[in-house]
Amino acid sequence: MKPPVFDYRAPVSVEETQQALAEYQADGKLLAGGQSLVPMLNMRLARPAVLIDINRVTELAFVRADDGGLTIGALTRQQALLEHPTVQERWPLLAEATRHIGHRTIRNRGTVGGSLAHADPAAELPAVMLALDAVVTVSSTRGERQIPARDFVVDYLTTALEPTELLRSVWVPALPPRTGWAFQEVSRRHGDFALVAVAALVTLDAAGVCTDARLVLTGVGPTPVPVDLRQTLIGAAPSPAAVAAAAEAAQAAVDPPSDVHAPAEYRRHLARVLARRALTTAIERAGGTE
Amino acid sequence: MVEKRPVTVTVNGQVRQAEVEPRRTLADFLREDLNLPGTHLGCEHGVCGNCTVLLDGQSVRACLMFAVQADGHEILTVEGLVAPNGDLHPLQEAFWEHHALQCGFCTPAMLLTAYEYLQQHPVPGSDEEIREAIGGVLCRCTGYQNIVTAIRAAATKLTAAGPAPASRSVAD
Amino acid sequence: MAEPATTRPKWIGQSMKRVEDPRFLRGKGRYIDDIRLPNMAVAAILRSPHAHARIVRIDTSAAERLPGVYAVVTGQDVRARMAPLPTFAVGPIYQDLLAVEKVRHVGEAVAAVVAENRYIAEDACELIEVEYEPLPPVVDPFAAMEPGAPLVHEALGSNVAYQRTFTFGDFDRDFNEADHIVRAKLRWPRSSGMPMETNGAIGDYDEGTGILTIYANSMNFTYFQWLIATSLKIPASKLRVVPINAGGSFGSKFFMHKVPTLAGFLSMVAGRPVKFVEDRIDHILNNDHCGSDRYYDVALAVDRDGTMRALQIKVVDDYGAYLQFGTGTHGNALAQVVGPYRIPSVQYELTAVLTNKNQQGAYRGFGSEVNNWVLERMVDFAARELGLDPVAIRRKNFIRPEQFPYRTPTGNIYDSGNYEGVLDKALALAEYDRWVAERERARQEGRYLGIGIVTAQERSVFSSTEFWFWFDQPGFPVTSSPESATVTIDPTGKFIVTLHSLAFWGNSPETVATQVVAEQFDIDPADVVVTYAASQRALPGTGPGGSRFTVMVTGALVGASGRLKEKIKKIAAHRLEVSPEDLEFHQGSVRVKGSPERALTLSEIALSAYMFKLDLPEDVESGLEASYTFDHPYTTLPSPDRKDLGVFYPFMGHACHIAVVEVDPETGQFTWHKYAAVADAGTVVNPMTLDGHLTGGTAQGLGTALYEEYVYDDRGQMLTASFMDYLVPTAMEVPRIDIDHQETPSPYTPYGIKGAGEGGRMMAPGVITAALEDALAPLGVRITELPITPAKLVRWIAEAKARGQAPTA
Asked: Contact C220/C545 with Cβ under 8 angstroms?
């Protein structure tokens, strides 16, 4: 099981990377952590003419937080993200979801940008970024643009990135006070891709009224699935009935696939169960009693 | 034909140089070009973890990296855990003492994964935490239990002996 | 042969650290893929993408032109130069090293490339053009039995390779007299040993001498070395097989001949050493040793008080495309088909079906693990249907200690046992009563806590008759399964033990040999070195399989040691001027009983044996070496009518495993509370390594029960052809296992040892199934198939609830 022949470039700056992407167009493939791409190369399921390895573009490896939010460079290793004290403190949902990615050895190499750009339908980060209302910054020799996370993953293993574009960073807004969170995942083995995972955020006001709630599921279709909670949770103090209704909405929102690990029916069932559990926990953490 | 690239790496404390095709995996490079066959290939698609080595002190799967990517980096393989005088590392001793290996094929990866864990957690957490730490390396023989026991025993020995284990590690 | 010492053993029974370990800890394991010979090339295989297709044309010219490629071979080359591969099948079910006219499963080898390295070899495989004419595949074994189904082997005229019903005891009477019949349809899916190291070999053909050397991580080459030579059409005297450390087998490298034969063939074709090591996809698609793939229809006849009267098993086994190992995996099951219970009669109907899948072979348990699961399922169903306690029904039916040796209905003998002793120890170890109380409390709280218990057998030391007693006119009714050892003392008094046909694969051959020899001679184990004979030809051997290694090699070592001790005593008696009977071995020397100061060290004796011929008795030849071939100590032939299969697996181990789990009925996931195992493997040689086998085997059994499955879709495509989809348990899926032992020695083996290498996997599937079912008992869930996935549990819960809510007539 050995990869096919490819040529190799290892740019050391964003600028060089953009130039290489412009030069090779669709023949070029960015290599970041390689934890998804290299298995496909070894199995000869991917055969790019040129690998553009961005592991030496160190300017892309950073985590910066300010009052407004968190900016994560694309080359930030997943393990570095989850160990980052500010991330753990202010964006615990992100840390918790990242902990579910594979094993430590995978996270040592795997990058935040790589996970988003690969857009595996069962991956954690694309879903969590959607829940967090993140914004992705991409650039090419033609300039830079911002893509909201909700528009970023467009289909199975497909993003809004153009072949010549580089995912540079992702910005996550600060969470409002009294925001609770939860991440729930079921996988076959520890470290496997999710059969279904659910990210939840619930914001309450001082009176306990839910002012905002977000729920995103992964593993249930070609892209992460956000659930509209305006009819169920938002606008009132959360009740068990409201949570149950929201969980029903989650189940109704998904059209999951069947595969060797689980039938669609089970994934649909999990969507409801995990949504209910995640929302319940998030409400508790927001200071609500449900 | 794609031209070969020069690669310079520090492996187990020694600077090694070679010319490799870009597609040559780090695992094949270590095993065949540098004659360090202790890094084992179990699946070559990044699941079994049997090819785990330490890159700049962090565990990585050598089947999921290309040798060219390791240029300029430091690597520790199982061969480098042994002290210069040939003594086994306390982790290796503990694996022996507690029967933490049967066929030995996953053992190098288990040792290096445990090594990384103990670097970060000199006093190990619960058995569950140790199991999570080695969760990325598949073992088909032992059922893992004795590996957990051995890691805990090695930690006790290492903390008693002081912070610097006697090894050619680049991660110390 | 010499009798083992009667005094209390000094080294047998010690948890001695393994002598094998240092090389593996240092990363110097010298596995097959670590070996590089000068001028060596590497092979890769092109495999069939079709489940069933005729090969119309193969064009290898582009592959041959690729720089770095040395040879490309296809089935035509194989057909021209080689004979078909050996098989235990009766009837026209031939198998070639590379497919010739048609491919019969996805992953079957179609062509092989020899090249400078594996990268180029795989590049070349992509350049081979194969034109296939797809044929309708037959995937489901029941569809395969239908008239008009596509035929896997046309010459056979049917996909049913074997069908026969065996009746043991007065089955009709017992079955009809019983108060109650418990019935179930049970499904055991295909999984496999999946060692972390795949199968591999290096062929090295010497054109000058005509000698072919094959290095291989095969387990038991001595037994069939001549068969490889026959396939290769070379004299067996010119084939040398060298055993190489194997990174695990669990059956996968048992009778492993295809990979060595391929490497040998390619070396002869390419004129240089050739290495072929399977990659993981090669291994999953075409390793010759997938486990059993069975559909059961079972009836257990019981009386109201729980007395078991008769057992009827109808089993359809989906063997895949070839029947290379015959139906031996059912012979194995028949060795212990009644488990530890006094079931007086048995009917066993086997239908072996061919389909377009990879072939079956050996996986730890060799078919008996399936029978254990089936029987323990039936016992639990009986307990539930009769309203009996699962512990009580087992206790009631156990064969009693005074009934041994016990003749089972199939004719196989159980040598010894104390099943209640094991049960009581296990109940204590697991704190069974406490968990029963805890289960009650949990149920009141609406939690789903369950306790599973199995009490089952582990037969050990197979006799070859199980491979052929199926047939009235077997093709090759082999009856030998020996093991050999050579003990050498060098001129300095150090010991060298040579094992024949026993490679290292994760078991502890060198440690066992060291302990036995240290015991025999009362020497320091550090003075023993263990090596493996290369075959050209080694002394008779069979190899590790069927939990035979420790018993058989100990027998060989005790025999060789006895012969050598006799010679040493003769030399020492001559020099000390006493009678040999007056001498004893003591701490590295030989001394006169009662006069310990009159002694010679073994080094003194060794030096004289090699260098001072004139100091030796006249009839003693120079040197200190003895060999012994130990045949199976207790095996008999089957009766001509096959109502009595004879004694073929008599050293009967036993174990009780108890598991406590708690199920989350909403997600189908569960958590472990307890796993306790008590085993009786007779005299224990090394408790630490035995516990290691037990723990590892249990982990594998849990893999079979919960995670692992070879899944083919209805077109015969393999859906689990990588480690992303074939799920080997990680450290997080395996619970802590508490272990205890009971020792009921075998009266027939050296030191009373029984085999135990397969034990964990023979018990774990049953106990986790029972525990999960017990947890969900309030919902009425009945578990009849593996693997038990969270998705299935949720479905079964929903179905049970629907049944419960359905209006009853």
From this structure: yes
Residue appearing with tokens 């070859």: C464
C interface test, pick of A120, A260, A268, A273 with most C CB neighbours within 10 Å: A260
Residues facing residue C531 across a β-bridge: C498
In the three-class reduction of DSSP (H, G, I as helix; E, B as strand; rest coil), residue A208 is classed as coil
- How many helices (DSSP H) and strands (DSSP E) are in chain A? 11, 14
Residue partners of B28: CB distance under 8 A and separation at least 6:
A2, B67
Residue B27's pLDDT band (cuts 50, 70, 90): very high
Nearest by CB to residue C667, choosing from A43, A44, A270, is: A270
User: What is the C-alpha to C-alpha distance for residues C729 and C700, in angstroms, rounded to an integer?
Assistant: 8
Candidates 3.40.50.2000, 3.40.640.10, 3.40.980.10, 1.10.150.120; CATH matching B90-161: 1.10.150.120
| pLDDT score of B164 more than 60 | no
Give the closest-approach CA distance of A4 to chain B in angstroms: 7
Contact B145 C736 (CB under 8 A): yes
Are C520 and C661 in the same domain?
A: no
Predicted local distance difference test score (pLDDT) of residue C6 = 52
Instruction: Please answer yes or no on whether B102 and C248 come within 8 Å at the CB atom.
Output: yes
- If asked whether residues C665 and C612 sit together in one domain, one would say no
pLDDT tens for C304-340 read: 999 999 999 999 999 999 998 888 899 899 999 999 9
Q: Residue C475's pLDDT is what?
A: 81
Range of the domain at A125: 63-173
What is the distance in angstroms between the Cα of C719 and the nearest Cα belonging to chain A?
7
d(CA C432, CA C660): 9
Q: Which of C127, C161, C11 is nearest to C58 (CA)?
A: C127
- Domain CATH for C724: 3.30.365.10
Q: What is the predicted pLDDT for the residue at A289?
A: 60
Distance (Å, rounded) from C-alpha C512 to C-alpha C529? 12
What is the least distance, in Å, from the CA of B21 to any CA of chain C? 10
Q: Are C257 and C220 in contact (CB under 8 A)?
A: no
Query: Is C622 in the same domain as C656?
Result: no
Under a CB-based contact definition with an 8 Å cutoff, are residues C491 and C483 in contact?
Answer: no
- Using CB atoms within 10 A of its CB, is residue C478 exposed (0-12), middle (13-18) or buried (19+)? middle
Domain that residue C419 falls in: 398-462+649-802
For the full predicted model, state whether its pTM sits above 0.80: yes
Residue in C closest to B25 by C-alpha: C119
The CATH number assigned to the domain with range B5-80 reads 3.10.20.30
The answer to whether position C667 is within a domain reads yes
User: CA B100, B105, B106: angle at the middle one, nearest 5?
Assistant: 60
User: Which positions ≥6 away from C418 have C-beta within 8 Å?
Assistant: C401, C680, C742, C744
Domain boundary among A31, A53, A75: A53
Nearest CA in chain A to C711: A260
Distance CA C722, CA B163 (A): 41
Statement: residue C806 has pLDDT above 70: no
Extended strands (E) in C282-366: 294-302, 308-320, 345-354
pLDDT at C583 over 90: yes
Mean pLDDT of B105-121: 98
Q: Which of A3, A8, A190 sits opposite B68 (nearest CB)?
A: A8
Asked if A273 has any chain C CB less than 8 Å from its own CB, the reply is: yes
Which residue do the tokens 């930690």 mark? B155
Concatenated DSSP letters for B40-108?
--S-SSSSS-TTEEEETTEEEEGGGSBGGGGTT-EEE-GGGTS-TTSPPPHHHHHHHHTT--SS-SSHH
**Token output for A99:** 């902990």
pLDDT tens-digit series, residues C207-223 = 999 999 999 998 777 78
Report percent pLDDT > 90 for chain C: 89
Helical ranges in C271-413 per DSSP H: 280-286, 328-334, 368-386, 390-397
